[in-house]
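anyone seen this seq b4? input:
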Amino acid sequence: ADDHEGDFAQNSVNVGFSPFGSSISYGYAFSGQTNLQFTIGGLPSTELATFDIDGTDYSVTSGASWTGAFVNHRPVAGADWFRLNFGIGIGVIRNNFTDADGNTYDAVFSEAPVGYTGIGFGFRPKKGLQYGLDIGLLFGSGPTVTPGEGNTSDAADAIAASPLSADILPNFQLGIGWGF
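predicted toks r here
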């Protein structure tokens, strides 16, 4: 059957929500199985939680701004709700760690580009309402951790070695959009 007939949506616009902030995307479907997606997103500086790193509690504030290009491929023709997703992202994730004494440390992920790979459910290439879930991994080289003035490099090294500063970061995104 011709992908360009009936309810096939060659274009789509959606919004998403992930740990790295909200985003807006434009998608162009080459076929019912493959589309290209361009996304911009970000997270205003937001206090996340308190984490124990090497016996010290840190309050963590995080912010991000990024853009990316992704390919979604539906490998099973009869299951257009299932996607493989891969692409690249460019941007920055900035985490600020503050201990109980007010000592601060910045962990900045700014390597460009980073790779992304994952799986997705939903966002069928159909006209009208679309929704989906993506689960994947960002692959980079981790952040540069810089201690604030007068703070110890030992604490910065502990933050750099923590899972919050990993080279591979998990991601999930919920989204809703419109195909046309």
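The two ends are 19 Å apart (CA to CA). Strands lie at 11-18, 21-29, 34-53, 56-73, 82-99, 104-109, 114-122, 128-139, 144-147, 168-179. kinda curious what u guys think
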